Amino acid sequence: MPNVSNNRSPSPRTPGIAATPIAFVQAILLAYARYEVHPHRALEKAQIAPDLLADPRARITALQMELISDAAMQELDDEALGWFGRRLPWGSYGMLARASISAPTLGVALKRWCRHHGLLTNDIALNLQVAGGSASITIAERVDLGALREFCLVSVLRNVHGLACWLVDSRIALLGAQFPFAPPPHRAAYAVLFSGPTQFEAGPASIRFDAQYLNLPLRRDEKALRQMLQHALPLTVLQYRRDRLLVQRVRQTLASHAQQTHSAEALAALLHVSPRTLHRQLKEEGATLQGLKDEVRRARAEELLHRSERPIKQVAEAAGFQNEKSFIRAFKGWTGLSPAEFRKQSLPLA
Description:
Largest sheet: 5 strands, mixed
Helix content: 40-55%
Radius of gyration: 24 Å
Shape: elongated
Number of domains: 2
Order of helices and strands: EHHHEHHHEEHEHEEHHHHHHHH
Number of strands: 7
């Protein structure tokens, strides 16, 4: 899928799982038809057999999609692959990346990206919005995008999300994505394309994520940008292992959903990651799920015991425990005191 690019020759990588819909290849072929260029070189480079093109259920790997996109961008000299009323010449998205790299935070960088994208084309407008603790990047369609509508909207959102992750060197977990068109036959592929739930017939096209990511400082410089632009297309498929806000997000989720996060599976579902990914990323951040649970539960329990007269059973429930007995046992392990003893010691002297 297209991205910020000045890449000339992608390096060899393992083929991977075939999850990309053949419909996106068909969209690229429409661009070839528009420019009256035969796509045989691009199809051969990506090793996409003709019989796959005739099967609407067919899938290709991320590497194959990268290879055919790279070939098409160069042959057609259009990084938008026919989406817009005029070509975006080779290096256009690289120019946007250069305009954003000096920003102090991701929020400023994304605002620049959205604003400068309007200099490339008036066919769509990108907008960064923040509301209620979440941020969203929204696409306003100013013209009829026709048969390339789905491919355009999906690709633009994937591109900006991939660049944002690269700029702050962090996986930015999506809270959700939405699109104005009806669910396509390959709707199952959207679970791979976008983490978090995807809604259809719910325009305008947008992705949503925790607004705290916008405050992260950029961790890339001009040298890193030059290197990235030699091989930028994988940004649309690269899954960052590191999430610089994961520990903070886990703490907040444990605190706000105390009774819905007893298991790692339940917590992972709220964070839109797998339990295995959750444990692995926490380990990479030097934390454990049990340690964070203890930290959040203890702070909540001590606050309630100190500042309220709630019965111990209610304190246990509010702190995230399933029963009073397990709460008392855990609290003694943390403080050496029972909850009742802790409350008594916390009372002001008469």
